[in-house]
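User: Please predict structures.

Assistant: First:
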Amino acid sequence: MKQTVEDLAASDITPRVTCSFFSGGKLRRETVSVPGEMALTIFINGRETVTVLCTPDRLVHLVLGFLYAEGIIDGMSGIASMRVCEDEPIADVRLTGTDYAEPPRRTLTSGCGSVTGSATPVQPVESDLTVTPGEILALMKKLYQQQSLFQAGGGIHSSALCDRQQILVMAEDIGRHNTLDKIMGECLMEKISTRDAILLTTGRISSEMLLKAARMGAPVVVSRGSPTERAVSLGKELGITVIGYARGSRLSVFSGEERLRLASRPV
């Protein structure tokens, strides 16, 4: 049986490279860690469908989350079999259903998301969840503290699924969209609900990120960076609270301000 990409060594995830480092008026040779990158091609029912540029770890989670975000599956029951192989590298997925319509083949870069429509229409998020600024900022601090790949080599995005007090699932990748897919994939495998949860990310909030959040049923999306104009508009349409620039003791709410409480309440 072929080894899966999940068995890749840490050296493949944050490989060491040499560079010329300038400091104090001098150049010197140094060996540093940088993010690993691979092109993973996903085959669905034997047909080449998409190539995802990603960090080579937790690839099973990535594939499952991608399929869910695209509306190709609604849960683990939609997968008849899946094999992630290091040699090519490819992910070979067989679906249980027979009504899958193949989209045009495409490549998703590490900085961009899917441009095709989901097979399942995205519905507005309904949730009674409310949060305080203090809770959001405390969670962002925890996210920073758990960025192991970023601390090893930099150049990595991190995202996390949280309740009001703690991080439930976290993922890192060169692509911010990939981090949400990895989280969703792990939640599918471990039967962790994403409904009424908070999504944190270190990257900017784009419209694709909002669509993934809506598919997950997450009513609050937070970033230390900025949302795009389209993300703000989508946040209003989909009933998602969009929070940007969450760092230190500050944050900005761009949509769904009604979910933000200034006073705390018991958990």
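Second:
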Amino acid sequence: MIKILFVCHGNICRSTMAESVMTHLVKQQKLENSFYISSAATSREEIGNPPHYGTVSKLREVRVPLVPHRAVQMTAQDYACYDYLIGMDTANIRNMTRIAGGDSDLKIYKLLTFAGSGRDVADPWYTGDFDATYADVSEGCSSLLRHILENDRDKL
């Protein structure tokens, strides 16, 4: 089984969207029994809150089922539990590495790295542009799934 944790600052916009998109992609491939997918925040600001209405609205528009979710914070134990810890931007990566106490197993990645880009996923908290965020998340999740199917087939 492959375990993936998507992480952003508050766990109500980007990481929740990525969790839902990746879950949907995995189900389309009929691989849901081979994956455990979740999401978390680097901060405590939104703990317990549901996904942002913009994320909910965008996912509904593109017919991606929203994974039931309440914001939680990433912990140091998450590093041991997950195969992939996927941050949405450079600040997330820095904070994830701090929370994990380093990245000795090289499991922390920025999402768009899998799409061949060093870009950050657009943050709709500041821009209000959930279309751009969805485009980034969709591209990143599709590329991540392709990477896993090509490189970690033995774990499925």
